[in-house]
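Quick one:
INPUT:
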């Protein structure tokens, strides 16, 4: 079932297996918010976007860990589907589809999201460009803006006070380099 013109529930489902009919109302709203932002990025670039990581449950997060990944225990990928992470706001890992390397497509999506964010055309939370040297994979992590999802009381409970974090990681999330507000990624 399509959430927006170009994004279907199955793309956000990821490895969670969560069916749309079983999702919480909070999760449905967070997915719609993310899909709306991605539609704007898709339109801006004139390219399809491939979601490579969407909704996670505790079970699917453990499977990622067993495969050598480093999923955060407080990840926004949980949306509203993990009672142990009640302040998750929704996130995806994605890159543009089409030609070019995974790095080129991830960097282009990262810079497109930043441009739209800086121009005020979309509202997101953290935007991270990530690379896993073991697999050679690249992706852009985009989280919903917590101010659009959480109550002021819940927003105050979040441990990450930097809603506008923009950074990149070349070591699968072990370390991050901040990118100053208004700047774009250039290969180091």
């Amino acid at each position: 079932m399509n959430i927006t013109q170009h994004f279907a529930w199955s793309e956000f489902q990821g490895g969670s297996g969560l069916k749309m009919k079983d999702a919480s109302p909070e999760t449905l709203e967070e997915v719609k918010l993310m899909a709306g932002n991605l539609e704007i990025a898709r339109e801006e670039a004139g390219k399809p976007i491939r979601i490579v990581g969407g909704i996670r449950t505790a079970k699917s997060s453990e499977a990622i860990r067993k495969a050598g990944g480093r999923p955060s225990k407080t990840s926004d990928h949980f949306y509203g589907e993990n009672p142990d992470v009640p302040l998750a706001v929704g996130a995806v890992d994605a890159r543009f589809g089409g030609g070019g390397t995974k790095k080129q497509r991830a960097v282009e999506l990262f810079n497109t999201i930043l441009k739209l964010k800086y121009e005020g055309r979309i509202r997101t939370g953290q935007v991270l460009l990530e690379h896993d040297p073991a697999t050679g994979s690249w992706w852009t992590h985009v989280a919903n803006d917590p101010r659009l999802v959480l109550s002021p009381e819940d927003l105050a409970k979040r441990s990450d006070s930097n809603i506008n974090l923009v950074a990149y990681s070349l070591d699968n999330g072990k370390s991050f380099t901040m990118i100053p507000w208004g700047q774009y990624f250039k290969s180091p």
